[in-house]
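Researcher: Good morning. I'm working through a list of sequences from a screen, and I'd like to move beyond sequence-only analysis. For each chain I'm collecting a predicted structure so we can compare shapes side by side. This is the next one on the list. No need for commentary yet; just the structure.
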Amino acid sequence: MADENGNTPDEPVVNDKRRIDPETGEVRPEPAAPSEDGGTAAVTDPDELIEAEAPDVEVPAGAEAPAGAAEAAAEMAAEGEAEGAEPLSADDEAILDAASRDLVADMRQDMLRAQAELVNFRRRVERDREANREAVVAEVVRSLLPALDDLARAEKHGDLAEGPMVIVAQKIRGGLDKFGLVQVGEKGEVFDPTMHDALVQLPSADVTVNTVADVIEPGYKIGDRVIRAAKVAVHTPQ
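Model: Good morning. Structure tokens for this chain:
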């Protein structure tokens, strides 16, 4: 069944809005624009027609703003903050200055304390390293002392007067001298319990203090470290 325009419901409705008629090639009359009272009004200006038919376009959220828009917005925000901010009073400025000075002083004290701790740490490391070195050297030298005792006895009995053992003894003693090995314990010196080990005590009227009467076995030291105390006989005052 056809409607008032002569179209049937099953046929598609085509609205041709082209300005040029494809059949005749002539310009079609301009369509009427709706008026305020519900009627239609003719649009005579093509620009007005384009503006009327142009849809509103929304800018996507990720699209870039025009050049200079961000700088202008930041400048306006800064001006707003500057206009709304209140100037600091003299008391507030004095408090801020005092806090700044205290902060600088605290940081300086922390820096000096850390520097002093670092210097002390380096000194302790060097002292411990030297002490460990001396302990290792002392242990090695202590293990060679029996050989030195044998060389001393052989030399006392004349066995090192000549022969290859003389050169061997010289090399051993020369190598130990490089570490600062010094023999302690001499007859007639004052008895020192830190360097002498008294095996025998003999009263004597010739001495006023404890004196070494004889050296049974010599002692050795490296620097201030006693490697082995000298075994001696001591004359004590009567």
